[in-house]
Amino acid sequence: MKKYLSLSCMVVGSLAVLSGCSKSEADSPTPAATGATVSGVVLAQDEVLRPLGKAGTTVQVEGLNKQVVTDEQGNYELKNIEPGRHVLNVSRAGMGTLRYELEVKSPAPVAFPTITLDQQSSTQVTSLTPVSKTSNSLPDEVAAFECQVAYNPQLYPAPKMYAVRLYVGKTSDVSNVRYLESSQISASESTPAPAVRGTAKLRLAFHASSLRSLGFASGEKVHLVAYGSAKDVQGGGIGREAFYFEPYVLNPATGQIQRVEANLNANPVRADFTMP
User: Fold this and answer.
1) Which of 68, 69, 148, 271 is the most exposed place for a label (fewest CB within 10 A)?
2) What pLDDT, in 10s, does the model give residues 8-21?
3) What is the pLDDT of residues 99-142, one digit of tens each?
């Protein structure tokens, strides 16, 4: 009998201890958030600047497990972002990805400026074919390519201009983000419109003086990549050349801030040649 009573006392005592622990935890204050809430709005528009639905854009802080999707009004809210320098990445299928510097200095809320995503260009480069010099070639021309382009003739009737964005670099991974120099080449349909609409050929020429100024030496390979590109309405196009500046980074080869065109066609064409 004594043994039974003793065991009962032990169990009751254990329950009392457990109950006391639970009460202590409940009384502990919830730790205050140390990071900021970053909020804003993302809009979207198609190739000819018509508004698209605002929901479904992914907004994330690169390098952190922080990601949300915009609601029907385009709103987003990223919570508890720690102080420091971050990169805000804004993306959506079929649209040009944008990246911005995001500096959080304190736990105070951060209202990020409104962002507009633009649809990727429907203009596409289909081939880059080496061609010979012509009677109009400059004396220091060292290479030339025929650039075959496919464009939507319903969107680009004359005199509306379609465009190609060309990038030059020293490595095979040259792109709209990694390059030494970029240029835009634009054109429009002839008037009257040709019998076969929607295709065109552009001649892209490269000159020794320009390539030397970029640091190319004789025997070195020159890498190219060409994308179908949007062209601003103000420049004779139908849309907007959406771009950002590469966050926190200078181009190591040029020492310049790198401008990144964001709404290029997703299917570029590559080529290369050797500097004579």
Assistant:
1) 69
2) 333 333 333 333 44
3) 999 999 999 999 999 999 999 999 999 999 999 999 999 999 99
CA distance 103 to 119: 27
What is the Cα–Cα distance from 250 to 248, expressed in whole angstroms? 7
Phi, psi of 6 (to 5 degrees): -60, -40
Give dist(CA 157, CA 48) in Å, integer: 13
Q: Per-residue confidence at 27, pLDDT binned at 50, 70, 90? A: low
Q: Are 117 and 44 in contact (CB under 8 A)?
A: yes
Burial 235-252 (b: 16+ CB within 10 A, else e): eebbbbbbbbebbeeeee
- Structure token digits, residue 96: 């040009």
> Residue 204 in contact with residue 198, Cβ under 8 Å?
no
How far is Cα 92 from Cα 115, in angstroms, rounded to an integer? 13
